[in-house]
Specification:
The complex is a heterodimer of chains A (153) and B (66). Chain A is mainly alpha-helical and 153 residues long. In chain A, 65% of the residues lie in helices and 9% in strands. The N and C termini of chain A lie far apart (81 Å). Chain B is mainly alpha-helical and 66 residues long. Chain B has one domain. Chain B has 2 helices and no strands.
C-alpha cells in the first residue's frame, strides 16, 4: 500500500485517504480530513454573505419562492383548520402570546389590514364582524399622516 | 367630504402633500384629527347596528358611484 505525506497536517497516510483531482488520476497533496476542514472553514466564512444572498432572492420573490411558501402556509392552514390553531394556543399560552405580540408588531410597522381592523373594532370588545374596507383604508391613511407629522416635528 | 371615499381621497392627497413638504405638519395633523373623529363616528354607527343585529345602509360609507 502506497502512502503519502499530507502537506497540511504532515501525517503520513495511505493514498486511499486522499481525494483525487478532477482528472481522476492524481491524488491531492492534502488528506481528506484536511480537505474537509478547509471546505468547512470556507463554508463558515461565507455564511453571512450566502444568507444575505438567499434573503435578497427571497425578498425579490425569485422563481416565485415567496409565493410558494405563502401558498404552502395557506394550504397547511386550510388542512389543519382554525380548530387546531386554537387548540395549540390553549396548550401553549406563552408561545401564543409571543406570536400575537410579533404579529401586532409587524402589523404596526406595515399598518396591515389586521392591525387597523383591530384598532377600529377589537374582536373581543366589539360586536362588529365585518369592518367596511373603506373605513380601514381611511383609518390607515389617518395613521400614516399622524406618523409623518410626528416624524417631521 | 360627503362620504368615506371623498375622505379617503382627501387624506391620500394630504399625505402626498405632506411628504412633498407642500403643507405644514400642523395643518395635516388637524386634518388627520378631524378624519379620526369622522371615522370614529362611522365606527360607532357600524357598532350600533352590529349590536342591534341590523344591516341597514350607511350612506356615508356607501360609494358615490353605487
Amino acid at each position: 500500500m502506497t502512502t503519502k505525506t499530507c502537506t497540511v497536517c504532515g501525517k503520513e497516510k495511505p493514498e486511499s485517504d486522499y481525494r483525487l483531482h478532477s482528472d481522476k488520476k492524481t491524488v491531492m497533496r492534502y488528506c481528506n480530513d484536511c480537505h474537509l476542514a478547509k471546505r468547512r472553514a470556507q463554508h463558515a466564512a461565507k455564511r453571512e454573505e450566502r444568507n444575505a444572498q438567499f434573503r435578497a432572492r427571497y425578498a425579490a420573490n425569485v422563481n416565485g419562492v415567496k409565493d410558494k411558501h405563502a401558498a404552502a402556509r395557506k394550504a397547511k392552514y386550510a388542512k389543519q383548520g382554525r380548530a387546531a390553531l386554537i387548540e395549540w394556543a390553549a396548550a401553549n399560552p406563552e408561545k401564543a402570546a409571543e406570536a400575537q405580540r410579533k404579529k401586532m408588531k409587524r402589523g404596526r410597522e406595515r399598518l396591515s389590514d389586521y392591525y387597523v381592523r383591530r384598532l377600529l373594532c377589537h374582536p373581543e370588545r366589539s360586536a362588529v364582524k365585518q369592518v367596511p374596507e373603506i373605513l380601514i383604508e381611511c383609518k390607515r391613511l389617518q395613521l400614516m399622516i399622524e406618523r409623518e407629522c410626528r416624524e417631521k416635528r | 367630504m360627503k362620504n368615506a371615499e371623498e375622505l379617503r381621497d382627501e387624506l391620500a392627497q394630504t399625505f402626498a402633500q405632506l411628504k412633498a413638504g407642500e403643507i405644514k405638519s400642523s395643518e395635516a395633523a388637524e386634518l388627520a384629527n378631524l378624519a379620526g373623529k369622522m371615522i370614529g363616528s362611522a365606527k360607532v354607527q357600524v357598532e350600533y347596528y352590529a349590536l342591534r343585529k341590523e344591516q341597514p345602509r350607511i350612506e356615508w360609507l356607501e360609494s358615490s358611484n353605487s
